[in-house]
Amino acid sequence: MTEALLSVRGLRSGYGPVEVLRGIDLDLHAGEIVALLGSNGAGKTTFNQTVSALVIARAGTVHFDGADITRAHYRDVVARGLIHVPEGRKIFPNLSVRENLELGSFTRARANRAVNLERVFALFPRLLERTGQHAGTLSGGEQQMLAIGRGLMAEPRLLILDEPSLGLSPLLVEELFGLIADLHRQGLAILLVEQNVAQSLAIAQRAYVLENGAIQFSGTSGELLATDRLRQAYLGV
Fold first, then answer.
1. pLDDT tens sequence across 176-231
2. Does pLDDT of 144 surpass 70?
3. What number of other Cβ atoms are within 10 A of residue 187's Cβ?
4. Where in this chain does the record put each ABC transporter domain (predicted)?
5. Which of 32, 24, 42 has the alpha carbon at shortest distance from 87?
6. How far is C-alpha 195 from the chain's CA centre?
7. Residue 13 or 167, more confident
8. Which of 121, 161, 184, 218 has the most CB atoms in a 10 Å sphere around its CB?
9. What gap in Å lies between CA 165 and CA 176, rounded to an integer?
10. Is the separation of the CB atoms in 38 and 63 below 8 Å?
11. DSSP assignment of 220-231
12. pLDDT of residue 201
């Protein structure tokens, strides 16, 4: 198999005296959707923040496209094309939809801003309808569209989506996962970090299950769905 686009080995990370991640190994190849699954508090967001260089790793390595980014500055990580759409959306509520999107290309792909704006508006027509509206007045689903659109403005080589379905209605969740599948079909590599196991495994090629800061299961989506313990713990079947 070709070299992984993202390769994580022995990753340990945490906050102050608390170690959250305890030796994580994970690979993601170009063009893949890989799901990182786990309940609230399992360490998913800490993993995302450490890979994105927002939290400094205590041990282990993170390589992206062959380069060691374990100790890189987060701006350099973004410049390489590893783009993180954070949990809770983290939009700028007092800026317009357009201004939020334009900020996505501040570090990377600024020269293609106009073309990428057109692409985002084609994906999310509702954002085009609200281009001048303050982002804080959007619905939860529209804010999630805006957060993903902002990430796409940077022309990501890998898009990390942290709990994108959190707080959305079942109908919007269905729409969101359809969009993620469409982005994957266009060739985008995606790390989908979710509590929604069934929906994630329906679109991911492979998955890892994180519990208490360690990987407990990994394999293809089919293999994980065939694991009795996983089905009982996460799917209730």
1. 999 999 999 999 999 999 988 889 999 999 999 999 999 998 999 999 888 877 77
2. yes
3. 9
4. 6-237
5. 42
6. 13
7. 13
8. 161
9. 7
10. no
11. EHHHHHT-HHHI
12. 92
Residue 160, beta-bridge partner list:
84, 191
Query: Coil, helix or strand for 66?
Result: coil
Strands (E) in 102-233, as ranges, are: 158-162, 189-194, 206-211, 214-220
Q: CA–CA separation, 120 vs 130, rounded Å?
A: 13
Q: Give pLDDT tens digits for 18-43.
A: 999 999 999 999 999 999 998 888 99
The CATH classification number of 1-81+191-237 equals: 3.40.50.300
**Nearest alpha-carbon partner for 41 in 195, 218, 212:** 212
Q: What is the CA radius of gyration of the chain?
A: 17
Kindly list the domain boundaries of the chain, sorted by start residue: 1-81+191-237
State the CB neighbour count (10 A cutoff) for residue 206.
20
- Say if CB 203 and CB 180 are below 8 A apart: yes
The amino acid at 201:
L
Q: What residues pair up with 168 in beta bridges, in sequence order?
A: none
